[in-house]
Design a protein that fits this description.
The complex is a heterodimer of chains A (about 260) and B (about 280). Chain A has about 260 residues and is α/β, with parallel strands linked by helices. Chain A has helices at about 45-55, 95-105, 110-125, 140-150, 170-185, 195-205, 235-265, and strands at about 5-15, 20-30, 35-40, 60-65, 70, 80, 155-160, 190-195, 205-210, 220-225. Chain A folds into 2 domains: about 1-80 and about 160-265, Rossmann fold (3-Layer(aba) Sandwich); about 85-155, no CATH class. In chain A, the strands form 2 sheets. In chain A, strands 6-7-8-3-9-10 form a 6-stranded mixed sheet, with helices on both faces. Chain A has a 4-stranded antiparallel sheet with strand order 2-1-4-5, covered by helices on one side. In chain A, helix 2 crosses helix 3 (about 110-125) and helix 2 (about 95-105) runs parallel beside helix 4 (about 140-150).
């Protein structure tokens, strides 16, 4: 059985003028145990909408969204969410207190949860930074604290919404390597939203490409069989890159021309 | 060179370095507080110069007679009596107004229904200056302490409500979402996210409200009271005791300054490291 199973998903937003905007239509997706699934699409295609629905922040207009065979009704501790920006961190808590947050909610005793949290801070490579506050940490560190905070809660899966989108190119590359390492150690399944093909090919075990909005759907899925050590310059890496690129190019062009039309109008 | 020799030659430059560091810190501190102190002293110098050379008049006494009058009023205990009454009234009203304001503000910020229900109250009553409420306060509660507590509560509560509610609504939605995804219940979100995230706003609101409380208590005591800084001002005016008036004014300035500094310190202490509000 799939971990996440989405069928016939449709999401319509009502705009302020009263007109309806259908962001997603006829969207089907299965995410399995132990996989790193990248959802890729042009900007405005509704990738984040899909993630928000799986996270339980948003509700489908139509269709079924199931986790372990049960419908998702709201946010829950079984799905850890890593947000793009750093505004989800609790600024009044130290790095350690941020990571302890989940265990603390469940009433884990102080000593135990501290040891537990330290383990995950070590895992994301931030040992020694426990007592710093978010404002004292760099962008990359803050994202790693977010990841540690989710993992310390031991969720069934991680939902990541362009978590490295706001980082500079060098930091992003390092973060991708670290995330790959963490995922190999931890094996928590991941749904990773991105618009960066390179990032998707670097990280994903499968890559789902979405069509341009409105009424986006899943265009196709590319299986990535590249193993653990991936180098951007390897031939097989380039091959997967090209395959995904050909798939998404058309969609990006379409989304651009739509933007142009909107501007003209 | 043996290790012993190395360590033997080290202390001299190290000691010098430490001395130099201490000297730099001292200079920085002197810069920080020195200029501050000079500013303060210049205030009195300017006052002296203006009152002696520019506006020489019995109606505008120079600082020295005022300070000696202050010393006299401190010695006979009168000044502290007045200050004590005013501060007690401010303290009671301020604590009442702030605590109610925090609760109402948190509720208004958290629940749309409460906000809609309370909006007509807050958005109309807050435009009636606390000073204007002195009239009804005296009619309702007499000239005793109760009317002062009421007025100061009134002067405090709306500012605290507004800043607290604004603080709650400015919490990034992702913070709440993150807490939900970590398994937090509504109650847990309230106490572990909403409340701590709002603290800097609450403190800032209280700081502004405190300034308002000062203004209001003096006005209230001018109108109806037997003790307090406002009474001291009013009685001194009646008997044309000019230095006493200036003692009262100076006391207000220094008290306000001190209380506000305490607030700034508290805001920095509790909220400074995670909030740009200071």
């Amino acid at each position: 059985m799939s971990l996440i199973s989405i069928s016939g998903l449709e999401k319509t937003f009502r705009s302020r003028q009263g007109a309806n905007y259908t962001a997603i239509r006829d969207f089907d997706l299965e995410i399995h145990e132990g996989e790193f699934f990248c959802l890729l699409g042009p900007s405005g295609c509704g990738k984040t909408t899909v993630l928000n629905i799986i996270a339980g922040f948003d509700h489908p207009t139509r269709g079924d969204v199931m986790l372990d065979g049960r419908p998702i009704t709201g946010p829950g501790e079984d799905r850890g969410v890593v947000f793009q920006g750093d505004d989800s961190l609790f600024t009044w808590c130290s790095a350690l207190q941020n990571v302890e947050f989940g265990p603390r909610l469940r009433g884990m005793p102080k000593g135990e949860r501290e040891t537990h949290a330290r383990k995950y801070i070590e895992l994301v490579g931030l040992g020694g930074q426990e007592d710093k506050f978010p404002v004292e940490l760099s962008g990359g560190m803050k994202q790693r604290i977010q990841i540690a905070r989710c993992l310390a809660n031991e969720p069934k899966m991680l939902l990541m919404d362009e978590p490295f989108g706001a980082l500079d190119a060098q930091t992003r590359t390092i973060m991708q390597e670290q995330l790959a390492r963490i995922w190999h150690q931890n094996e928590t399944p991941v749904l990773f939203i991105t618009h960066d093909i390179d990032e998707a090919v670097t990280l994903g075990s499968r890559i789902g490409v979405m069509t341009a909005g409105p009424e986006s759907t899943l265009k196709g899925i590319v299986e990535v069989n590249l193993g653990d050590e991936r180098r951007r310059t390897d031939d097989d890496f380039m091959q997967v890159y090209r395959e995904v690129y050909d798939m998404i190019r058309e969609e990006v062009l379409q989304s651009l021309s739509r933007e142009d039309q909107e501007e003209a109008a | 060179m043996s290790p012993a020799q190395v360590s033997a030659t080290r202390p001299a430059p190290d000691g010098e370095g430490a001395r130099e560091a201490a000297w730099t810190t001292l200079k920085k501190t002197a810069n920080l507080y020195g200029i501050y102190a000079i500013g303060f002293v210049s205030l009195f110098v300017l006052w002296h110069l203006i009152s002696v050379y520019l506006l020489s008049s019995v109606l505008f006494p120079p600082p020295l007679p005022v300070l000696s009058k202050a010393a006299e009023l401190i010695a006979n205990g009168k000044l502290f009596e007045h200050v004590g009454f005013s501060m007690m009234r401010i303290a009671v009203g301020f604590v009442l107004g702030s605590s109610m304001g925090i609760v109402v503000g948190l509720l208004m910020g958290s629940f749309l229904t409460v906000r809609r229900f309370m909006d007509p109250y807050v958005e109309t009553l807050r435009f009636i200056p606390a000073v204007a409420m002195i009239t009804v306060a005296v009619i309702w509660f007499g000239i005793g302490e109760a009317s002062k507590f009421f007025i100061i509560t009134y002067a405090t509560i709306f500012i605290v409500i507004l800043t607290t509610a604004a603080g709650v609504s400015s919490i990034a939605p992702n913070k709440t979402r993150a807490a939900q995804s970590l398994g937090a219940t509504r109650t847990q979100i309230f106490f572990l996210v909403t409340l701590p995230a709002t603290v800097p706003f609450i403190l800032t609101g209280m700081r502004v409200a405190m300034a308002n409380a000062f203004t209001t208590i003096v006005a209230a005591e001018l109108v109806a009271a037997n003790h307090g800084i406002g009474t001291l001002l009013w009685e001194s005016r009646l008997y044309m005791k000019i230095p006493e008036i200036f003692v009262a004014l100076l006391t207000l300035a220094l008290l306000g300054f001190t209380v506000d500094r305490c607030f700034r310190w508290a805001i920095f202490k509790f909220a400074g490291r995670y909030s740009p509000v200071t």
